[in-house]
Amino acid sequence: MALQTKHRPGPLARKEAWEGRLYILPWLAGFLIFTIGPMAASIYFSFTKYSVLSGADWLGLDNYTKLFGADRLFGLTLYNTFYFVILSVPLNLFAAFLVALLLSVQVRGINLYRTLYYLPVITPAVASALTWGMLFSGDFGLVNAVLQALGLPTFNWLFNPKITKLVFVIMGLWGIGGSAIIFLAGLQNVPRVLYEAAGIDGANLWHRFRHITVPMMTPLIFFNLVLGIIGTFQVFTGAYIITAGGPANSTLFYVLYLYNNAFRFFKMGYASALAWVLFVIILVFTVIQLRMARLWVFYEAER
Amino acid sequence: MTQTRAEVPLTITGGRKRSVAGLSMSGLLTRLALYLFLSFVCLVLLFPNIWMISTSLKDSPQIFAYPPELIPAPFLWSNYLVAIQKFPFFLYLRNTLIVTGLATFGTVLSASLVAFGFARRRFPEREVLFAVLLSTMMLPSIVTLIPTFVLFTRLGWVNTFLPLTVPAFFGGGAFYIFLLRQFYLTLPYDYDEAAYIDGASSLRVWWEIILPFSKAPLAVITVFTVLSNWNDFMGPLIYMNKPHMRTLALGLQFFRDQRYTQWNYLMAASTLTLIPVLILFFAAQRYFMEGILLTGLSGR
Amino acid sequence: MTKQLSRREFMRNAGLAGTGLALAACAPVAQDGAMDDGSMMAEKQTAYIFDYDPTGTDAWVEADQLFIEYFTEKYPDYEIIREQAPWAGFTEKLLTSIAGGSEYDVIYGYWQWLPLFIENNVIGPLDDLIDADTEISADDFFDYAKETIEGETYGLAWFISGWLHWYNLSAVNEAGATTPKEMNVNGDWDYDAWYQFAKEFTSEQDGVPIYGYEMGSGRSVSVYVMLAWAWGTEQWNDDFSASIMDNEENVALWKWIQQFYLEGLTPLPGSSTTEQPISYTNGRSMATMAGQWYTRTIVQDGAPDLFDIGMVPFPTGPSGQYSVAALNSFYFSSSPGNVDPAWAWYKERSFSEAAASIYASIGGGRFPSIKRVAPATVYEWEDTEVYEAIRPILRTYRTSPKESEWINTYWNVAWDEMVLGTRPVEEILGQLAEESTALVNS
């Protein structure tokens, strides 16, 4: 791209470094005061038997050996979660980008549409739960009614272990408003001069999209991808409210199982071990993302 | 290079009137098709909300009438009055506004400073610390809930709004910092450089260059912060023992007990609860949608 | 360069020191602080209660207010401090508070937690308190009102649900059939009659099914046990060392239940926690099982305007006729700060005559826990004869040592598989028994 910056010389580098540290200090201080202690405590708990009702008893590696050896549900919940992540992350990213493009069009009343598209994100989860039951019910749900009218087969969506995870993938699409808004905000930061330059070159719509819009949006695609993976691995609320993990554990996602251990079975130690294993899994995926980012993410001000 | 630098700000701030993409999509038919498509997707997306509002106006037997009925009969507007009398709605609203207001102010201010450090200042520890920042999002908060509560207990902050507001002033959380950093990285460094050459301090660069160009992302994180604080239920639940310090999200839980959910009142209170956020979003939009993209239907 | 390194080192050391400090700050607060508070309060005696917050349920809020007024008037020297949480988040609130050093003299109980609370020495037995009390003795209580583990009583229920059948009396009369209640009086109300009832009343109206029976609650272990007793079995052996879910009786019972699902006599569960629009109260299933707390739901859903309410005890099985008493109790701290006010509150709240009448409006009172308190009913369509018939056959469910984990991890899954009919019942129950036994012995 044309706007690549050149490296600045070094004399000011030290001042710049101290300024940098000063700017991030609020976060660093907050991290040291509010975050690192609880994180460290949870590492400690992961090596203990800890019911919260009484003190923690040191167990050594027992929680971890149980997790990798004896716990059938560890594997199952990982499978459920990976299944969901693999389908949901790309689908949501793609859909959010499309919706953002659609909503970026300037026509009368578009502001209203943008607000309405965001509405599902604002809606309290307890309030949508009832609706989902209504929509996907096998006996009388609207989804089945539509399918029937089209002459397609119907399902008992929420009680067929083979498709319940898909229902959650579909329900997840209602929440794309958040990512779409991020894209939408990004789309307006694409400098017009780039389009104008391209217009002079006679590039067509697709070319402009492919060679200007997409590269300029890569930092935000990257953001939504990384956050999508971090967030989707921790999918919880929907399964907690709507199916409680059922039927037959088909929607028992990793963090729901972790929650059950912590607050239903009072096994906070084991839950902490589960949490740190998930931490490592997400970390690996994120590090891969960060590495790959160098190949495809374009930063205007990369320094 | 120098030429570009001088030109860019002008173009961005002043160039929005013309449709740069110059498409011939302005035909009436195209626009009609667009509206139809927008409305169709909208209807699908809004179904839960439509159902929610419909339920909020029904009497209890009609909620589970079979087959399901969309139109309330009769329209019980009184449900809304009953719902806000089930718990001290306006007191909870006041508390929610205090918590959300402070937390949002703290987050937007501190996250934008921290993100500036991560995006536009170089220092040796930057990459490592950034990785640490990201990693704080990877541990499910379920297992840090107890130790965090203990920490705030020791600080003597239980039964105050401090646990819900003070941490916001310390960066406000990795999500917002990361998001702003990504936005900042899309702004060419040439702007900053020009200012530094003119002798500007970095704080001034942040204030006079970065912030004005970041209205869109700032509006976005404002909306996100408001939303997450507005709907936070676990924080107020565990830190507030005194009933008069509770927030709206907590109030919504009072319509469900062990065996029975009062759906109509729950939906009425939920509807009332989301209206302020909706208004905020509508108002914030002009900041994140001043511009146009590649199409720009110039039919205004 | 050296300068830079040392600076980095400084930051790292500062970070480590910070971590250590922060970690120490997060260690659970030692739980002896509240005791001092207790001894310091010589003047006014205070009891700390962790209670359910009924805000939103008007009748309950009113009852609570009345009760507090009654209590303060009777015990002017006692001060009650209640911390309350709504049902959503109740455990989180309780656990964080306990970790933060709060001590409660009385805790609103939930039967699935009982074994864990005992194991962690959070709550203690009530037997000594009952013995020391001059106003009451252990014999005053019905056996079904006690939450007893290994011979010690940990809960005396303040609310008892006696489970029964609710059926659509109008539909039965219209069909000219014998009502289940009549059958029960004649001694014909058995499991075959139950099945026939479901079959007879399963139909279709305008293309949508009407189910003969709504079986969903049978998934709850404490409800299922009632059927198991009638078939001569339970879920566990006597000392909870092994699951007996794979025995002949359980297998036969599960097969009996399964036919309701496979033959479409009962709706498939669409989801486990969201309410279902197919219910007894809107006339879409002709009968269901519930405790007498269901009277509140029936009224709220407007069912008495739609059809006549029929009530009958559970049928007689091969081994007899039973009803389960589902209990709600408060639990008492194992190391209470101030025994007198706490026990006064416990007693008054759980089984005083005042409490019985005050809390009748939220569905209690039909099955009193204490013999001298008379049963109370609220609605004129309630069949008191049926309550009378149930009282002698009430029993309580024995809570397994790892109740919550067992239900969530194994029981519910096995039940779902039975409903879906994916594998033979013998196989499902064989696996369930094996895993359950392993769990209670782990």
From TrEMBL, chain A:
* All copies of domain ABC transmembrane type-1, residue ranges: 78-289
> Which GO cellular component terms, listed alphabetically, does the Swiss-Prot or TrEMBL entry include?
plasma membrane
Q: Which organism is it from?
A: Caldilineaceae bacterium SB0661_bin_32
Q: State the family named in the UniProt similarity comment for this chain.
A: Belongs to the binding-protein-dependent transport system permease family.
**In the UniProt record, does the keyword Transport occur?**
yes
What subcellular locations does the record give? Cell membrane
Show the Pfam families listed in the entry.
BPD_transp_1 (PF00528)
Recorded hits in PROSITE patterns, A to Z, give:
ABC_TM1 (PS50928)
How does the record say this protein sits in the membrane?
A: Multi-pass membrane protein
Instruction: Kindly list the residue ranges recorded as spanning the membrane.
Output: 21-45, 82-103, 115-135, 141-159, 166-187, 212-233, 240-259, 265-288
Q: What is the protein name for this chain?
A: Sugar ABC transporter permease
The record's Gene Ontology biological-process terms are:
transmembrane transport
Q: Which UniProt keywords apply?
A: Cell membrane, Membrane, Transmembrane, Transmembrane helix, Transport
From TrEMBL, chain C:
Extract the Pfam families matched here: SBP_bac_1
Is Signal set as a keyword in this record?
yes
PROSITE patterns referenced in this protein's UniProt entry, alphabetically: PROKAR_LIPOPROTEIN, TAT
Q: Does the keyword Transmembrane helix apply?
A: no
Annotated signal sequence is: 1-24
Q: Identify the keywords attached in UniProt to this record, alphabetized.
A: Signal
Return the PANTHER family for the record.
ARABINOSE-BINDING PROTEIN-RELATED, DIACETYLCHITOBIOSE BINDING PROTEIN DASA
This protein is called: Extracellular solute-binding protein
Q: From which source organism is this entry? A: Caldilineaceae bacterium SB0661_bin_32
